[in-house]
Amino acid sequence: IVNPSLNNHHKFMTNAPATIVLLKAFIRQSRRKSYIIDLPRRSIQCWHLYLICVHTLSKYAYISTIY
């Protein structure tokens, strides 16, 4: 899902720590002791939330989308 709003993009990118805190609410620990990020598809307003997840948690996390 791509949000064409550059204002929202700028807002989240310049406020990454708060965005990460928001994403932590979706992070749960799986049985394999890996971190799963559950992001309800309808709640995603900005595509770069995925980029932040990948950039910050790619080494030990999997991204799972709930459809």
Helix and strand sequence: HHEEHE
- Please state the structural category: alpha+beta
CA-based shape: globular
Per DSSP, the total helix count is 3
Count of separate structural domains: 1
Number of strands: 3
Q: Mind describing the biggest β-sheet?
A: 3 strands, mixed
Strand order of the largest sheet: 1-2-3
Low-confidence stretches: 1-14, 63-67
The value of Rg in angstroms is 12 Å
Strand content: 15-25%
Helix content: 40-55%
Kindly state the mean pLDDT as a whole number?
52
Distance between the termini: 12 Å
SSE layout and pairing:
Layout: H1 6-13, H2 16-24, E1 27-29, E2 35-40, H3 48-57, E3 61-66
Parallel strand pairs: 2-3
Antiparallel strand pairs: 1-2
Structural features, described:
- This protein has about 70 residues and is an alpha+beta fold.
- The protein is about 40% helix and about 20% strand.
- It has 3 helices and 3 strands; from the N terminus they run H-H-E-E-H-E.
- The chain has helices at about 5-15, 15-25, 50-55; strands at about 25-30, 35-40, 60-65.
- It has a 3-stranded mixed sheet, covered by helices on one side.
- A hairpin with a 5-residue loop joins strand 1 (about 25-30) and strand 2.
- The radius of gyration is 12 Å and the shape is globular.
- The protein starts with 5 loop residues before the first helix and ends with a strand.
- Residues about 1-15 and about 65 have low confidence and may be disordered.
